[in-house]
């Protein structure tokens, strides 16, 4: 039988042989027999046209999603792409790719986080990431894969410019003192000393550290920009690493001899509250490190290399924190050439 119900399921399942010898097996996505039969007949007709007339087979969103994730495996943002694709599959599923419109995509953009147990409003930048994933997938389908005649044109929404969140050295010392777990305190302190991303610190292995030469390195497959990063270790970073000697055979940082594969966000937020610091994520430790560098006179091109950023534009976000090199030009717009501030005369 071409349509049937599987044991333990009310939904109909389609199963038939194509004229070309292939086999179509998929859920009909409905419990209505008439709707399932209509979809079966449609798929069978399309299979006949492909085999007899040379038409291109129609591909479903599910097929495109699975191929896209296979091709993206190993990318730095793969986990985020999996989350985005999972959401879009819940919307479009077995829909034919060529029936999905621009308006449908834009009106179904998520407003809230889709992770289990998380209920928060998504920022415009996060919504844009969901849009970027489906746009890239549909562009691949229309380009390299040749599954679509053309992809819908999807433009990202304008994102409001946000301030760089950083704290002072006194605030950082208060925060570290407020952290009640040694391994979390050491990881945070190492972040302030090196500017490394959280995952790079947690996954740092002894094979990536040379204490004698006071340096560490991040391999290309571990870096967000997929380029290796050389990390010079200052005296504070060296002291932190030395405290970890003998605690774990492979990883530098550990919790009771076990590599900390997670970050306790609740404890982190509680420590921030005790230290009187608001709206401070762990990633802001990296912003703080970069801000201290700029304020200390580190050139932006050197900071770009130290932080492993892929573009100069990313480093320019911190340039406003040290405008000292512009001071000689400030006097170019004085209203008076005499020393001191100009005298202003009231008009009667």
Characterization of the model:
- The chain folds into three domains: 3-53, no CATH class; 61-142; 171-326, Intergrase catalytic core (hpI Integrase, Chain A), CATH 1.10.443.
- The strands form two sheets. The chain has a three-stranded antiparallel beta sheet, covered by helices on one side. A three-stranded antiparallel beta sheet has the order 4-5-6.
- It starts with a strand and ends in an 18-residue tail after the last helix.
- The chain is mostly helical and 348 residues long.
- It has helices spanning 33-53, 61-72, 78-92, 102-107, 124-142, 169-178, 182-194, 198-202, 235-242, 265-274, 283-295, 300-307, 312-315, 327-330; strands at 3-5, 12-17, 23-27, 209-210, 215-218, 229-232.
- α3 (78-92) crosses α5 and α7 runs parallel beside α11.
Notable features of this structure?
hpI Integrase, Chain A; 3 domains; three-stranded antiparallel sheet
CATH 2nd-level architecture of the largest domain: Orthogonal Bundle
Radius of gyration: 28 Å
Mean pLDDT: 85
What's the domain count? 3
Low-confidence stretches: none
Major beta-sheet overview: 3 strands, antiparallel
* Helix fraction bin: 40-55%
Main sheet: which strands, in order across? 1-2-3
First-last Cα distance: 99 Å
Question: What structural class do you assign from the helix and strand content?
Answer: mainly alpha
CATH topology of the largest domain: hpI Integrase, Chain A
* Principal-axes shape call: elongated
User: Total helix count?
Assistant: 14
The CATH H-level homologous superfamily of the largest domain: Intergrase catalytic core
Domain Core-binding (CB): 59-142
Domain Tyr recombinase: 162-331
GO biological process, one term: DNA recombination
Family: Belongs to the 'phage' integrase family.
């Amino acid at each position: 039988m071409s349509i049937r119900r599987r044991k333990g399921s009310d939904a109909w399942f389609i199963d038939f042989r194509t004229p070309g010898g292939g086999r179509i097996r998929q859920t009909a996505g409905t419990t209505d027999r008439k709707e399932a039969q209509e979809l079966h007949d449609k798929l069978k007709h399309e299979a006949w046209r492909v085999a007899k007339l040379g038409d291109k087979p129609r591909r479903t969103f599910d097929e495109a999603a699975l191929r896209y994730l296979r091709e993206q495996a190993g990318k730095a943002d793969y986990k985020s792409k999996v989350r985005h694709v999972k959401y879009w599959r819940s919307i479009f599923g077995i829909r034919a790719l060529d029936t999905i419109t621009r308006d449908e995509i834009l009106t179904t953009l998520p407003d809230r986080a889709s992770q289990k147990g998380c209920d928060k409003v998504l920022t415009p930048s996060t919504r844009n990431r969901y849009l970027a994933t489906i746009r890239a997938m549909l562009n691949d389908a229309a380009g390299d894969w040749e599954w679509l005649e053309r992809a819908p044109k999807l433009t990202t929404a304008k994102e409001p410019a946000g301030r760089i969140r950083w704290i002072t050295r006194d605030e950082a010392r208060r925060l570290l003192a407020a952290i009640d777990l040694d391994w979390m305190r050491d990881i945070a302190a190492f972040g302030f000393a090196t500017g490394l991303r959280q995952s790079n610190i947690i996954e740092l292995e002894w094979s990536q550290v040379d204490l004698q030469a006071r340096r560490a390195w991040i391999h290309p497959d571990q870096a967000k920009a997929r380029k290796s990063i050389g990390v010079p270790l200052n005296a504070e970073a060296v002291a932190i690493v030395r405290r970890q000697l003998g605690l774990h055979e492979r990883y530098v940082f550990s919790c009771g001899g076990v590599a900390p594969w997670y970050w306790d966000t609740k404890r982190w937020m509680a420590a921030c509250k005790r230290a009187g610091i608001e709206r401070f994520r762990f990633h802001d430790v990296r912003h703080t490190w970069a801000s201290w560098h700029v304020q200390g006179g580190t050139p932006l091109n050197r900071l770009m290399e130290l932080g492993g950023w892929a573009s100069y534009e990313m480093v320019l976000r911190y340039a406003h924190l040290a405008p000292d090199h512009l001071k000689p030009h400030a006097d170019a717009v004085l209203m008076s050439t005499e020393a001191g501030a100009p005298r202003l005369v009231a008009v009667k």
